[in-house]
Amino acid sequence: MIFETRCAGCDTPGGAICTVCRFALLGRAPRHHDGHDGGVIAALAFTGRARDVVIGLKYRNRRAVGRHLAGLVVNRVVETGAHQGLDVVTWAPTSPRRRRERGFDQGELLARTVARQLGLPCRRLLERDTGPSQTGRSRAERLRGPRFRARPELGGRRVLVVDDVVTTGATLQAAGAALASRGAEPVLAAVAATPERRPANVVELRARRSHAA
Ligand SMILES: [Zn+2]
Q1: Taking a C-beta distance cutoff of 8 angstroms, is the pair 137, 165 a contact?
Q2: Quick one: what percent of the chain has pLDDT higher than 90?
Q3: For a disulfide at 175, which of 92, 121, 155, 160, Cβ 3.0-4.6 Å?
Q4: Cα angle at 90 between 84 and 96, to 5 degrees?
Q5: Upper half-sphere CA count for residue 108 (Cβ side, 13 Å)
Q6: Does 3.40.50.720 match the CATH number of domain 19-212?
Q7: How far is the CA of 159 from the centre of ligand 1 (A)?
């Protein structure tokens, strides 16, 4: 019973995130864009342990893992100075089917925690246009991404959209466009993780890991 909780990243019994995973995440910022990826502020590269922890959020220790990842997002946002002058935090709602399957919306959980840590209100400003879910669509359709409607009027409001992981960027682009169409200005985006594409970084991270081992 003592070891009921297992690490979301590596399945080690003990805490919601074990010490090894916690430290691994600290060094996993996506370095190839200094935390910015096409205007998206990212806390982590979506590789290795960071990837395991973000995926673990779906299945295990949601509250604790969400809090931890949100803390990393907040640190990154504050580092970039993007938190200054923000009015409200929101998220791009997942499809109703996925929400039903998981019982919660990962983006919403992160957005609410990030907002609380930044001392900002979190509001549901986006509605997803209903259509086939991301997984049931062709690659071309997925690249076009989901469509969102924003409400209410957001004239001059400075909005931060929070998400768990950015893959094609289509979701955040669609969310940003919907918010901007209602007058939000600027729309910033922050995510827990973004894919790391540059081979040089892979080599570097591998070297660091073997050094650590
Ligand atoms: Zn672990």
Answers
A1: no
A2: 44
A3: 92
A4: 165
A5: 15
A6: no
A7: 33
